[in-house]
């Protein structure tokens, strides 16, 4: 396809395989539905309203976002149920309040008395009733309070006494990215759900409605076996997957729906190097597979059709240069990659690679004209 | 300053200290002038026409760029002497030709017969006389041909027989980033200049005018002692510097003109962690100091005024979270960083961190209103 239009799109560019993208969505959505829960997709991977259309059935479908820039852009596109899943900084409350005034159901996240007091103070001074989630720590990964914490009812009280609403609890099993077996992921999912149930039952016993119990990380979402009382499951990178997820065992190489298309621009024949025009600016600096079972360097090199080429490794990237090394395992020589030929690179970490691009080229199996999906930029 | 305007700019954002930026420029420009040469600045670090105003005296001042997107944007801003210092892919020649038709003096780079033949063919078929640089390998870092290579006069002949012009030779001492002492950098600079002189004298003896001999990398540019016959010196990151350059010994911490301003959004008191709203999306995934004499994690944590805070290290970043760890060496507790307070992070690698931002906030010592410098995005 791209051989026929060598100029447009110019390389490097980010390619989304829409057929795989839709299959990945269907896989998780049907899985979670069969377990009696719902998906609140995290939109941070592609940050695209075009991409979100296939994740959100209607304007009020629940979604997760990681910046207020996303909130503002998705709100402008008509989506109105947005969980900002990063601990709230008090100075960001006016931006949240503005979105609420526009009719957006915004949910904010906190895990400390400082934040809860700031929300209460701003809410009372400005007549705003925020919708608040408390973060529960299920695995020591990052933030949140433990489910048995004495601080939990304290926070709930500060929130509701301040005129805001405790809408839910949120846990994220970030440590599940370190899992090495399916059983480990199942255990992480069980712990994630277990923590949020304990916290939720405690608060409900104290009279807080706290209607939403939210869990999620892409690994646990694909391995949870019991979602009893879990209102919703959050996951982000599952739409495209990547090599980190392949290594964890959540997807296969052939499920990865994202790649960077690049052109060969030179060689170092003595060293067996092929230079391409995708450096870290197009691939990102993410080396997420470095400490996993298989290290893919800066990504897996594939043919223009997406077939993996064994024995090729991108060990070095500069800003606009990638260096593909042909190892002993390669059944190719540098002459198999003449100047002007193209390769596709599957990324270590889809979120990081997508972040380097301002738009994506989207193709599907039907062979219809590519779509362009712009990315929401900034904060 | 930012305490007075807690909402604008919202965090995270990239801050440029213009006073330091101008001093860094003056330092290199006066150094190179004293050695009888000129600077052809590489504009890839900030990719900003506003930033370029202080580097380019007039519209015809020589500049280096790393993408054709930069070429098009700098041309639109009136700059007309642009060296695209990445090996040319044949399919990009039409974009180059279009810029030439607009009056831009574009220079392209190549190091292979395949590229030279493609340039000759396109040039003859379309009546375009390109201005071409040949890349000379001075240290085995990446591309280029050795200065004694038999291919050198061959390439020159293909270029000029094809109706294009061999404008110059280019060497880049990329291995100087691995230097550990000043003497090693001086030796790298000597080798860089030596390689390009050998190649240039050879071609001139054969009757090629080859008027430009171009060398450069930020370390060698600051340590070269003899620039005899060197027409121009290229350097990019010297305008802002960064922690990698500090470790190499090219600048001091206090010369670093770039930082990311971030807000504290939470704590994990048991672990001595402070969470900030700058993750890898704002800082980049670049870990360029990981294998240097001092590893700065994801950047050096400073006070809002830019004073380094010893004993704090960002060992972990997620997309929109940074985790600052307070080590035994820290003379602070997490309570010294309340929710809502701000820190500044000096980056490992200025090019990679700037790449994550769509614009920069620029302040100077005078205390005048900040400027906003937009970044040129994409390819």
TrEMBL record, chains A, B:
A Pfam cross-reference name: D-ser_dehydrat
Sequence ranges assigned to domain D-serine dehydratase-like in this UniProt record: 257-364
Superkingdom assignment: Bacteria
Protein name: DSD1 family PLP-dependent enzyme
InterPro entries registered for this protein in UniProt: Ala_racemase_N (IPR001608), D-amino_acid_metab_enzyme (IPR051466), D-ser_dehydrat-like_dom (IPR026956)
